[in-house]
Design brief:
InterPro entries: GltS (IPR004445)
Shape: flat
Largest sheet: 2 strands, parallel
Protein name: Sodium/glutamate symporter
Number of helices: 4
Number of domains: 1
Radius of gyration: 14 Å
Helix content: 55-70%
Structural class: alpha+beta
Strand order of the largest sheet: 1-2
GO biological process, one term: L-glutamate transmembrane transport
Number of strands: 2
Order of helices and strands: EHHHEH
Transmembrane segments: 9-25, 45-64
Oligomer: single chain
GO cellular component, one term: membrane
Length: 78
C-alpha cells in the first residue's frame, strides 16, 4: 500500500475547494435544501467517499497533517 502525506497548505486548499463543491451540490439538488442538509455535511460526505474509493481501488492511503484542522473547523462550522 502506498502512503501519501498531504501537507498543511494543500490540505487547507483542498478543504476550501471541497467546500465549494458541496455548495454547488446543494444548489443543484433541491432535496438537500428541502431537508436542510448543510453544505458542510454534503462536502464532508463527498470527500470521504472520494478518499475511500481511492484507498479501495488504487490501494493508496492518504494521510493529512492536522495543523490546519482547527482553522478548517472554524470555516466549516456553519
Amino acid at each position: 500500500m502506498i502512503s501519501i502525506e498531504v501537507p498543511d497548505f494543500i490540505a487547507h486548499t483542498m478543504g476550501i475547494v471541497v467546500f465549494f463543491v458541496g455548495v454547488h451540490i446543494n444548489r443543484k439538488f433541491t432535496i438537500l435544501r428541502d431537508f436542510n442538509i448543510p453544505e458542510t455535511v454534503t462536502d464532508g460526505l463527498f470527500a470521504a467517499v472520494i478518499v475511500f474509493l481511492i484507498g479501495l481501488f488504487a490501494d493508496i492511503e492518504i494521510n493529512y497533517q492536522l495543523k490546519t484542522r482547527d482553522s478548517l473547523l472554524v470555516y466549516f462550522s456553519g
